[in-house]
């Protein structure tokens, strides 16, 4: 865990417990690559998903099994990172040599599969069948979306509706699910469960749009992803879609049906920045942020509400 | 499905229903690679695991959801085949171009993951949490065993105990699980559930040992795997372990720490065949077969018992 949680005193020790459960799971069953997976878990990032789940569980009373479910959701995330590294043939992740680079494709595919099974075991032990199904369903729709997205690379499909549908099936659904599972497992009132799900959905939409804007804007020192990464991979995100609508004549000739040269990447970045598309995209993020706040305001006035508000402010602060 | 089930009139139409459920699942949710996964399901083999599950369910009364669980177990198998093809970089499987060869690593990894999630969704919808956990746990231990096995290739670790532990965590546990889940979900008596689990375990052990013997013996026309496949992949199975115990001096120099030449493969095959190791290995298979029959005889005298006996005879007939 990094310093992101320093100012959230309630959450920090709870996330540390979730982290310990994750390590226990990885160390169990004499799994042959335990050490390697453990380093990955240790180097893991913000633990946003488990944080959402824990906060949501404070809207209910039942606490048993909540930490284990939070661990399950984060292990699912680690499993997808391991498979992503196989797909991208990545050598390092967060400064750690990837499993794929250390042990090869076979071990990395199997280690990801193993972690998925551990996640589903935890889910079937510590959640209702309905929530276990929800977790499986969500991972399924993320895989499906990823395949869709990969099949559309370098096609530059310029539809805002299509883009919003895609991100709603990934980040937004994931944030919504984390809040939903936490609230419903702790037996929160059903109106609260629904409201929290909508908060998560809207925060996720705003978060993803902001992330996609940053890919056009940030100087490389600011974030881990280099600028223009999406462009280089042939992904058509909101800023480019909006720029294409206002300035297709200049942009279209630069977008080919395969990886583009660095000069073209730089030209596209400049054109998108200069036509006001980033500001336009930001209005979408702001709209989702506003909806998230509106939903948040409807929640009962308990400590968790303020904790959630604080977390959303921090997450979306960039575009607030 | 192939002709394997022609003489089992009760089972054949039920397996056809399971097959239809599998196709429905694959066609659902606008999954982008539905066609490709469907051809894989269509070309799928014997459907042994769902057959065991269905037969076991006849020892109980509850029938609801049994076909769906049988489909889940077979989809899990298809998912692991897709990932195996990524690992082996295989171009075809059962005469069908693999997903990996048609669409690349990314789509194949994600399609396998997607099928795993569909399997866990079905399990959480149609089985008790305990059985959902059992299914996840079993797949986990198979992944773990595969990694162990891969890390030991070309080390020729000659321990019978180690070999038996390995196959008990794969084929035997899988067969046992299929029978256990079918019986317990249909609310069979707990003594019957335990007995069926032991039948599955022993049949699985005998089946895997027989398969490993065939890799040293069959002429290439007899079966789909070419002879000596395990040897070429650096896997040390029971016949070689037994041969090493009786004739290490001649065999050891032929076994290197990497892929061996075809002349060495042929020499090892001949040495293993000539020292009586295949017959010795067969005594192990026979012992497990006998234990399976002993357990089978304890089952209540219903039609399913005779169906199961008939299936075991067919499966193990080669070594009976």
Task: Explain this structure.
- The structure is a homodimer.
- Chain A is mostly helical and about 325 residues long.
- The first copy, chain A, folds into two domains: about 120 residues, Farnesyl Diphosphate Synthase (Orthogonal Bundle), CATH 1.10.600.10; about 190 residues, Farnesyl Diphosphate Synthase, CATH 1.10.600.
- Chain A has a two-stranded antiparallel ribbon with strand order 1-2.
- In chain A, strand 1 and strand 2 form a beta hairpin.
- In chain A, helix 1 crosses helix 4, helix 3 crosses helix 8 and helix 8 packs across helix 9.
- Chain A starts with 10 loop residues before the first helix and ends with a helix.
- The model of chain A has no long low-confidence stretch (mean pLDDT about 90).
- Chains A and B meet through helix 4, helix 6 and helix 7 of A and helix 4, helix 6 and helix 7 of B.
């Amino acid at each position: 865990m990094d310093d992101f949680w320093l100012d959230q005193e309630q959450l920090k020790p709870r996330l540390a417990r979730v982290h310990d459960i994750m390590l226990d799971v990885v160390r169990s069953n004499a799994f042959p690559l335990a050490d390697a997976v453990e380093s990955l878990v240790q180097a893991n990032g913000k633990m946003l998903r488990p944080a959402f789940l824990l906060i949501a569980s404070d809207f209910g009373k039942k606490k048993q099994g909540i930490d284990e479910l939070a661990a399950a959701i984060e292990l699912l995330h680690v499993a997808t990172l391991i498979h992503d590294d196989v797909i991208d043939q990545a050598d390092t992740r967060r400064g750690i040599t990837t499993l794929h680079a250390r042990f090869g494709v076979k071990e990395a595919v199997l280690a990801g599969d193993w972690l998925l099974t551990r996640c589903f075991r935890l889910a079937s032990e510590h959640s209702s069948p309905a929530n276990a199904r929800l977790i499986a369903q969500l991972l399924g729709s993320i895989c499906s979306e990823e395949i869709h997205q990969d099949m559309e690379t370098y096609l530059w499909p310029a539809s805002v509706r299509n883009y919003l549908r895609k991100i709603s099936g990934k980040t937004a659904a994931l944030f919504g699910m984390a809040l939903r599972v936490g609230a419903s497992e702790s037996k929160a009132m059903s109106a609260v469960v629904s409201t929290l799900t909508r908060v998560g959905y809207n925060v996720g939409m705003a978060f993803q749009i902001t992330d996609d804007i940053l890919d056009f804007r940030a100087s490389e020192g600011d974030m881990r992803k280099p600028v223009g990464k999406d462009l280089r991979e042939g992904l058509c995100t909101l800023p480019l879609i909006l720029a294409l609508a206002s300035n297709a004549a200049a942009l279209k000739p630069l977008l080919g049906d395969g990886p583009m040269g660095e000069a073209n990447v730089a030209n596209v970045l400049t054109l998108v920045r200069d036509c006001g598309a980033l500001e336009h995209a930001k209005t979408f993020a702001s709209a989702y942020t506003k909806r998230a706040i509106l939903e948040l305001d409807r929640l009962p006035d308990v400590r968790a509400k303020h904790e959630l508000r604080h977390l959303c402010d921090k997450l979306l602060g960039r575009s607030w």
